Amino acid sequence: MNIYNLANSFPIWICCTFTVSIVFIQSFLYFKLAKKHSISMGANAHDCSKAFKVGVISAIGPGIACFIALLGLMTTIGGPLAWLRLSVIGAAPTELAAVSAATNSMGVPGAVLGDKLYSLNALSVTWWTLALNGCGWLVFCTLFADKLDIMREKVGKGDTIWLGVLSTSAMLGIFAYFSINSFVYKFSIKIPELLAVIGSALAMYTCIMLSKKYRFLKEYSLGVAIICGIAFGLGSSFL
Question: What is the pTM of this model?
Fold first, then answer.
């Protein structure tokens, strides 16, 4: 069975289109509700139009980052599911991390559709990892969203700085683990992958520093980091 053709087959496109269409419907309904209740909130038509334009412009940066991540995901999970995941979830780093975890668990780190080692089982595990990752959020929010304030007070005891340090440290540990797995394989270091990690990290750090003065760069930082990582990786492979 051709895994590439299966992942990009017409039935898969139909299933994903049905789900993504729900996102479009929800967006339209939210827009109508916002427009309907804007008058009761004291906003005039000019303010609403200005807010809408600001929102559209602000969405360009994250949209570019998602588009770049989409290109990467398409090579691993196929076009339809990549489109679905980033339309419904939109958290590009989380989706990329989930795919990395799935392929690593199946012994095919960095595999893409068409690789001989990338079997139907590996594709299935990757799809299930993405689905379960999203389901976890939904179940947690449904059961515990109203209890998060209580948990926050008990863990942080009202100290917002400590909570920020705790959550940031957890995220750094998680993504450091995934980064190391991408360039360390069987006690050997893969140089192109290592340089890709270093290049993307430097690009992210530079964007964060510059965003203190040029705030718009904050929204583009992920996309810039991904592009720089790809450039470093490809450049080193030609050396």
Answer: 0.60
